[in-house]
Amino acid sequence: MEFSAVDSEKFAVQEFRERCRNAGLALTHQREIIFRTVYEMRSHPTPEAIYERVREQLPSISLGTVYKNLKTFLDTGLLREVSPMHGSLRVDAITEDHHHVVCTQCRMVVDLGEEELEPVRLRVQLPDGFVLKRCVVEFYGLCPRCAAKPDKPR
Amino acid sequence: MEFSAVDSEKFAVQEFRERCRNAGLALTHQREIIFRTVYEMRSHPTPEAIYERVREQLPSISLGTVYKNLKTFLDTGLLREVSPMHGSLRVDAITEDHHHVVCTQCRMVVDLGEEELEPVRLRVQLPDGFVLKRCVVEFYGLCPRCAAKPDKPR
DNA sequence: TTATTAAACAATAAATATTATCATTCGTCA
DNA sequence: TGACGAATGATAATATTTATTGTTTAATAA
Ligand SMILES: [Mn+2]
Ligand SMILES: [Mn+2]
Ligand SMILES: [Zn+2]
Ligand SMILES: [Zn+2]
């Protein structure tokens, strides 16, 4: 899949307006620039990095606005979180390779042994020169408890 | 694989002493308790959670000591980081399902389309009642640049 | 277009997470 | 046992994220 083919600039921004409308979000200048900036960066950027870029076009924007809108975009599905695990360090006493089942609500992490999964197989080569250390599969969703409850326990 | 079968308590602590010795780490009371605590928790805990538990046995330990030792353990391979991506939020403008190639040194993230991988197949059921939302494969390693350099650029 | 209203904004403070500094204590090894 | 480097505890500093508040802006309808 060529992502660049599917989502052209214009389409993405059109889509953005559409989705804001559907989600009942006001279409502000800041919002559009923040979204377009993330979209153009294509590097899985941090809020800080986005802020730096956006500031070039909107010198008076505040970091808080960037954070708040990123969160809004994540909530409405306009953007995705690269690793729903983030927030604080999580350590694993099991040093053998294995995989994880993760609840995105309470952040519970359950192990899944290597052999509980068919081996992961690439159809292409990894980027030339990339030195692979490990491969982890993460299943994201809601644990039974969180699936039952209406919202955000923790 | 039953992890509990492989690594019995005693074995793990023995292994721990061995590895400390090999890595030239002093064997302190604090270290042993921190490690044993993480090992017993088996819940991919945060530094804060570990600190709370360890404090029950070592009321005078400081949070900084917990952090420093966790980092040491990660460096020496005694523990593993659940998500080498953590540290700060990373957002993705691509909302279609896809996978990632991640450099654990500079934290660069490169996309890998769904169809560049054989479909991931489970040999077992996910935990009963778990509502699966998405499945992400992450390939961790060193990007060409970081593989070439001796240490920690960023 | 203009008035009304709710939402979003910038500025700022506060909370949370993590790392650094340093004087003291402790483990290692001769 | 004694010297010495490493580790600890206390604390400060930094980084990341969220909350608060007064002001501005976008959406809606007259
Ligand atoms: Mn695990
Ligand atoms: Mn991506
Ligand atoms: Zn949950
Ligand atoms: Zn790299």
Q: Which strand-content bin applies to the residues of chain A?
A: 15-25%
The spatial strand order of the largest sheet of chain A comes to 4-3-5
State the helicity of chain A in percent bands: 40-55%
Ligand species: manganese (II) ion, zinc ion
The CATH superfamily of the largest domain in chain A is identified as: Winged helix-like DNA-binding domain superfamily/Winged helix DNA-binding domain
Q: Could you tell me which chain pair has the largest interface and how many residues each side has?
A: A-B, 79 and 79 residues
What is the count of β-strands of chain A? 5
Per the CATH scheme, the topology name of the largest domain in chain A is Arc Repressor Mutant, subunit A
CATH architecture of the largest domain in chain A: Orthogonal Bundle
The average pLDDT score of chain A comes to: 90
**H-E order of chain A:** HHHHHEEEEEH
pLDDT under 50 segments of chain A (min length 5)? Answer: 1-7
Content-based structural category of chain A: alpha+beta
The largest pleated sheet of chain A is described as: 3 strands, mixed
What is the subunit arrangement here? homodimer
Shape of chain A: globular
- What is the CATH class of the largest domain in chain A? Mainly Alpha
Total domain modules of chain A: 2
User: Cα distance, first to last residue of chain A?
Assistant: 37 Å
